[in-house]
Amino acid sequence: MSCSRLFSWFFWTYNAGLVLTAAMMVVHGMLQVNGATEVSAAIPGIAGLGHILLSVGMVLLLLSLRTRLFTSAVKHDGATSVALAG
Distance of alpha carbon 47 from its chain centroid, rounded? Predict the structure, then answer.
């Protein structure tokens, strides 16, 4: 499955979203510990973009799994019908 183009897209998209989300959570936490009462709207916005990338990555994973499962099911169905007929 790692040879699939969709899996490659999943891997990079999901990991980019994970790094972006985690980094913004750390930045937000450091600001909160330092006592910043007002945080720029950019920090939660960038964290939200990280969450969007995580969601897109999960959709790509499911699409990659779907194509892998259905292509292997077609191969097995053909072999099964030949074995049953013979």
Answer: 15
Quickly tell me which residue has 């937000």 as its tokens.
Answer: 28
Within a domain: 3: no
pTM of the model: 0.76
Amino acid residing at 78: G
72, part of any domain: yes
pLDDT at 78 over 90: no
Give the distance from CA 26 to its chain's centroid: 21
Nearest Cα residue to 54 out of 17, 3, 16: 17
60 with 13: CB under 8 angstroms? yes
The count of structural domains within the chain is 1
